[in-house]
Amino acid sequence: MNPRIEVVALDCLMLRLFDEIAEANMPWMLAASERLRTAFGAQLIDLVPSYTTLMVHFDLTLSSPAQARQRIADALVDLAPSARSAGHCHVLPVWYDLSVGPELSLLAERSGLPVAEVVRRHCAREYQVFALGFAPGFAFMGLVEEILATPRLSTPRKKVAAGSVGIAERQTAAYPVVSPGGWNLIGRTPAKLFDRHRDGYSLMQPGDTVRFEAVDHAEFVRLGGDDTPLEALA
Is CATH 3.30.420.100 the right assignment for the domain spanning 4-75? Predict the structure, then answer.
């Protein structure tokens, strides 16, 4: 870990803890988040975690930039990951099918694996939630096996269905709402990923883990999934 404090704005500083994305980063990121929330208290407006950084937005009427910088530095003294469990483990049912996941065949072709093996491997791992962003409730998760890693689409789609599960590089995610998107779609989950009536709004939070579970079409529909083919949404 090589912590550095960078200026984002007059009332916003970025704490950069790591230079590369890794699952081993998360315990340190969570420990730093807890320290910073305690250190800033009512002076903290927002704390935004990412793969390797924590953005600290503070109240400029209560703390000067110099004081905020010192507060961050002090919070890092003797920093260590917590021994307690970091977060919840979510199991997301997914219907893997070409009608809702058209890049399944592309991933199979790129990896040299049968479609069924692509699905099996995507379900075989427990993924770390690194950050939320792009859209409310959109959780960036990883890391997928290198053999399944696939670049984003060269031309993003104008409309991606809510619940669509995709892969981009070594990340995986599920779209919480209908939106544009350039990830490689491989299936769809019926899970409600964003709910404004839910505490915290998002089903998943940084530090949680996710496991995908393949279900058939009948189970997907029974769970409330929308099986409208992707091409019908264009």
Answer: no
| Residues facing residue 117 across a β-bridge | none
Closest CA to 184 of 135, 230, 116, 130: 230
54-63: per-residue pLDDT in tens? Answer: 999 999 999 9
CA–CA distance, 91 with 25 (Å, rounded to integer): 22
Domain boundaries, the chain: 4-75, 89-233
At 193, the amino acid letter reads L
Distance (Å, whole) CA 141 – CA 171? 5
Beta sheet of 89-94, edge-to-edge order: 89-94, 209-214, 126-132, 139-142, 171-174, 164-168, 184-188
| Integer Cα distance of 191 and 201 in angstroms | 14
> Which stretches of 22-171 are DSSP H helices?
26-40, 65-75, 104-111, 115-124
| CATH code for the structural domain at 89-233 | 2.40.100.10
pLDDT digits (tens, 9 = 90+) for 80-113: 887 655 679 999 999 999 999 999 999 999 999 9
Q: Any idea which residue has 């977060």 for tokens?
A: 87
Cis peptide before 13 (omega within 30 of 0): no
Residue 159 tokens, joined:
């409309």
At 205, list the tokens.
């939070």
Structure tokens that stand for 147 in this block: 């053999």
Cβ-proximal residues to 22 (8 Å cutoff; 6+ apart), any chain: none
